[in-house]
Amino acid sequence: WAPWIEGSPNGPYRQSERDYSKEIKHLLDSGNAYYAFDTEADLANARKDNPHFAYDAKSRDKMKNSLTLPKEEVESLLKTSPYVIRFKVPADTNITVTDIIRGEVTINTNQVDDKVLVKSNGVPTYHMANVCDDHNMGTTHVIRGEEWLPSSPLHKLLYEAFGWDIPQFAHLPIILNPDGRGKLSKRKALSL
Prior knowledge:
Elements: H1 21-29, E1 33-36, H2 40-49, H3 71-80, E2 84-87, E3 94-99, E4 103-108, E5 116-118, H4 126-136, E6 141-145, H5 152-162, E7 168-172, H6 186-191
Parallel strand pairs: 6-7
Antiparallel strand pairs: 1-2, 2-5, 3-4
Helix pairs in contact: 4-5
């Protein structure tokens, strides 16, 4: 048995072929996610007014989303306007992630914005897809580069929102190109 062969138990293996609608519905129904109808102009204005703007617990109640709009308007906008689905990160909560390499890492949710889980074209983002895929494929250990460490609290919150076991995380230092310029990419590693 090879996991990448068509018909294997955990397939399909391309995100574009997987269906996340059940998980998205769960997050919306449980209040852990919401629809956001803000246009690019709305977001640009928010950034103009506040150069440190983040779509988060402090700003979401001033934005155009299903948390602030009447139910009838939300239902109308869902039929007529583009929208994204965002994760509702709790305010001012310390999230501790245990990393095999770094030990306990604690980040306050005031440093985490309400990430987009589903883009306006209906495609899930990395944050949504990787948590669902790792769970659905029975992943027990996640080993990735340290640049993903700041995303770990969000991923832990997603696992908790679904009621799923959280895999063990290990964040490795970045490996640099042999020429010393930038991190080693998958493409360059294959050609070495």
